[in-house]
Design goal:
heterodimer, A: about 270 residues, mainly alpha, 10 helices, B: about 280 residues, alpha/beta, Rossmann fold, about 40% helix
Chain lengths: ~270, ~280
């Protein structure tokens, strides 16, 4: 059950996407999110969806992993789509009691569905192809202007690195504690919701305590390795923009212009 | 040989307030003095709570003594201005490898130390590759730590220390959480580093067989220095060690029992010598 969680997973590889600068990837991800949401008709929507799919294929990560990340949110996607389907405006095509399906309802449902799926896919591309250290490094650099406002950019990035590092370790530990409690007769999988939540407390308490102990030991180990914050720190993999970064950014900018052009030239879908 | 670390009349105790707000002082280290020579392999023995972990953290100034002083190549361990110099000279490896690894990729974790020291990127790359090769983890450089076995994780942690190019590594029970295979891996790595790279090793352990591999053994009990000698001599004091709740290597124990509980300097401390010893005994009878 717990091993299904794919957050922050990274698959080492050597694709074009893997080699891009994390800063570029982060900025492109943000622009992708914006442009996925400004699509106004089916042409621009399918255009950006196909673009996202080609990026997914170019990433060289097994498609199975992307399906796994989609599986986690399948219910949310279906739920929002169905709600959108039933709450359209205009003339109903079909009606059952107070539930009516309209053209705008169908449009909304399809849009929401494709948008969320593209969103998950493109975000997965980022986490699957970028090592957590690179990712946080990229964020640190992108946020560095915030230092003017006395925001501790390095500390935030360090916290994220450690959090990502400890996700698998703590998941392992949760499973161990759960098994230990089960061996003592605790039932985790039966009863109603409230009983199940209550059954989880004996798991959470030891987990919390051990996390604090881990944090203390990690802090000591980091100090022993001369950690003293971001000042005077260098990086093994310093970030340099390469030709591939400029080219891929240009391609994406052209694609985004295409989305806007399709939006303007062709009529908007009825919403 | 030069003295690398000098421990002079060190006393240390933990202070804490109990429920009635009364100050309790527990003496952990009690007026200990010894020297660590450059390039030697020293084992620190003692059972749980004997103060050996506290002593480990003193070697690089994480804990400073209440009384007495510790000199690392002549630098006092409580010298705040040279704190990072000391910590890069004396690296510390702890028991649980999971709680020492900072980054999600092996090589990036090994780079953590040199990055903190402000080493230029190109040199970090070289140091990381060299350190990973030294612990035989080079082919795992792109792995995520949670995909490694315990022994591999601990070797990664050791590589992280070596990348800082220390003169001395202090290992605080590095094999306590490992299976026998992982333990053997880590031990052979430690010995290799000591022999080939001439790094001073201080191994804190309660496994007698590991201590038997050292050049010199110091036994600590309840904060007092009990014995300081070569493993062969130390483990011939079978009675004394047993009195303090410690064991001797199995080989020495067997020989000791065969001799009907008589102590002598000739007790074997490894398996190979033990076999010879038994054969000799049989031939004599």
């Amino acid at each position: 059950m717990l091993s299904d969680i794919t957050i922050g997973q990274f698959f080492p590889g050597n694709s074009i996407i893997h080699r891009l600068d994390p800063r570029i990837k982060l900025v492109l991800l943000l622009s992708f999110i914006v442009f996925i949401f400004i699509t106004g008709n089916y042409f621009s929507l399918s255009f950006i969806f196909i673009f996202v799919l080609s990026v997914v294929i170019m990433s060289g990560v097994a498609l199975k992993m992307y399906l796994k990340s989609l599986k986690a949110i399948v219910y949310i996607v279906l739920f929002t789509s169905v709600i959108n389907l039933l709450y359209g405006r205009g003339e109903p095509i079909a009606q059952l009691g107070i539930l009516k399906v309209t053209v705008s309802g169908i449009n909304n449902a399809v849009f929401v569905f494709i948008r969320i799926v593209s969103l998950i896919l493109i975000s997965s591309v980022l986490t699957y192809t970028t090592s957590p250290t690179q990712l946080t490094d990229g964020m640190e650099r992108l946020m560095s202007p915030l230092k003017v406002f006395k925001i501790q950019v390095h500390e935030i990035a360090m916290m994220m690195t450690i959090a990502l590092r400890f996700i698998p370790t703590l998941l392992d530990e949760t499973e161990k504690i759960m098994n230990a409690q089960k061996a003592r007769g605790a039932s985790m999988d039966s009863g109603n919701v409230i009983q199940r939540i209550k059954a989880f407390i004996p798991v959470l308490v030891p987990l919390l305590v051990s996390s604090f102990r881990r944090a203390y030991e990690l802090a000591t180990a980091m100090e022993c390795r001369c950690y003293h914050g971001g000042d005077g720190r260098t990086r093994m993999k310093s970030l340099h923009l390469k030709k591939a970064d400029y080219i891929s950014s240009a391609v994406c900018v052209i694609a985004f212009c295409g989305v806007v052009a399709l939006n303007i030239i062709l009529p908007a879908a009825e919403r | 040989m030069d003295n690398f670390i000098e421990v002079k009349n060190v006393t240390f105790g933990y202070k804490d307030y109990d429920n009635n707000n009364i100050l309790n002082e527990t003496c952990v280290i009690n007026n200990i003095s010894f020297n660590v020579r450059k390039g030697e392999f020293l084992a620190l023995l003692g059972h749980n709570g004997s103060g050996k972990s506290t002593l480990a953290k003193m070697f690089n100034g994480m804990i400073t003594p209440d009384k007495g002083e510790i000199l690392i190549e002549g630098i006092r361990s409580d010298d705040e201005d040279r704190k990072y110099e000391i910590r890069s000279k004396v690296g510390l490896v702890f028991q649980n490898p999971d709680n020492q690894i900072v980054a999600s990729i092996v090589e990036e974790d090994v780079a953590f130390g040199p990055e903190n020291l402000g080493v230029p990127p190109k040199e970090i790359r070289e140091r990381v590759d060299e350190a990973l090769k030294a612990v035989d983890m080079y082919e795992y450089r792109n792995f995520a730590p949670h995909k490694l076995s315990g022994g591999q994780k601990q070797r990664t942690a050791i590589a992280g220390i070596i990348a800082m190019q220390p003169d001395c590594i202090v290992l605080d029970e590095p094999t306590a959480m490992l299976d026998p295979k992982g333990r053997a891996e880590v031990m052979s790595t430690i010995k290799k580093l000591n022999k080939e790279k001439n790094i001073t090793v201080i191994l804190i352990t309660h496994y007698m067989d590991e201590a038997a591999a050292a050049d010199r053994v110091i036994v600590i009990d309840n904060g007092d220095l009990l014995i300081d000698d070569t493993p062969k001599k130390v483990f011939s004091h079978v009675k004394l060690l047993k009195e303090h709740g410690l064991d001797v290597p199995q080989s020495a124990e067997i020989a000791y029992m065969l001799k009907g509980g008589k102590e002598n300097d000739e007790l074997p401390i490894n398996r190979h010598r033990c076999v010879e010893y038994i054969v000799e005994l049989l031939n004599n009878n």
